[in-house]
Amino acid sequence: MPFAPPARTARGRHGRFPLYANDAYLDRYHRPERARLRGLAANPAVPGALLRRLVDEYDTDTLTSVEYREEWTDEQVAALAQHPHRAIRITLTQAPGLTPEQRTTLVEDPDPLVLDLLAEGPDLFTRWSSEPVPLLTDAGYDRLLERRPEAIKTLAWPRHRDVLPPRIRALLPPEEPPPAPPVPPSPEELRERARDESEWVRTETAAHPDLPADVVAALAVDPSPHVRLAVSMRPELTEEQRAAIDYHVGPDDRLQPLLWVLRSDDPRVHRRCARSAHIGLRRSIALNTRIAPELVALLAADPDPAVRLLLCERNPQAPGEVVLATYLEARVVTIGRLLQHPNFPRDGLARRADSPDPRIRALATLDPGAGPELIERLSRDPHPLVRAWAAGDRRLPAARVCELFEDPAVAGQAARNPRLPVAFMERILREAAVLREEQPAEGGNVYLGNWTPEQIAAVENG
């Protein structure tokens, strides 16, 4: 997946974009010597011995890029699988780009923790789909359990069960019954909680399914907007009752998804939530992957950007044109995952290469039908974002990759390109030696939150 590091032009963005990095951090992050290290760590063609040197000498700067490499050769895996530092081997167990055959080479690791994490596998968030996939080969599962019998408990997790070989599945312990539900509070207890001085206790109580109707009515006019909002999203309310409550949900407000909506298999509940005037209900049903196609289409046209974003992030039925539009409009740190959506419209993106918007021009590099001439033209674009996306494209001639290697704005992306000559890869390690003398950036920070220009100025001015 194309990637461009945080740009200085992103400073001062606010609203739903949750990231703000100050100048000191960006100067350090964008330093070409450091950007090239990250790029080389992700390069599909880096020789195994060079990757090992990179990790040995610059693990702090490169280990995250190593973990999230999209492609691995057997030579590269072998170069790190015997590393003396356990942290490096653990990184391999969590790398989503490894094939089951490559991950199976780790079952001989001497460290029990490595074997335990090998059984767990990568975080599912690293893949667009949460569908389970085999972690190891059939023989790999056999050998893992031979060396680490305790791993059978991890392999029994729901995310692993369905993809295990039948003979391994037969060894799994029976699924544990769900724990007994807690004893529900009595009506008297709920009434007491509804009168608690803490608005957070009242907010939690306002969502309780067993709340008496008179308490619901009392909390609907609670002085706290959090309590009133919680009441407004109760399942038994009609649209008229919700509208009568003085609640507010702004476009930038984050809401906890409603479990009664997420877990519902009832088409009537799905329709009611998708057509509700309440943004909270529509955002929650957008996360439910069991909704009918007509409701997917309805939510894809929702006026609330968060509804469309949540739908595109979770539902494989989301229309491709909506996924593309959402990618272009959203300002969240996870937006790159939409590029992996099964309906993301890659074919035909080359036609957008002349768009006045650099984000759209950059997308032209995703078109599998874009020829080398177009990729080279985009690599000379005046905007660094467009050049960055083109710089890592393997359709780019090696000579142009080497030229972009010298461009400070896109040097890291050029270092990712598999057509970069090995001599340039070796040069990256030599020139990175200057980083050993670098002093920590004073005041370098990344901040999370919804930042206005005034808040940013306040942070910078102490």
From TrEMBL:
UniProt region (Disordered), positions on chain: 171-194
Domain of life: Bacteria
Pro residues bias locations: 174-187
Name of protein: Leucine rich repeat variant
Lineage start: Bacteria, Bacillati, Actinomycetota, Actinomycetes, Micromonosporales
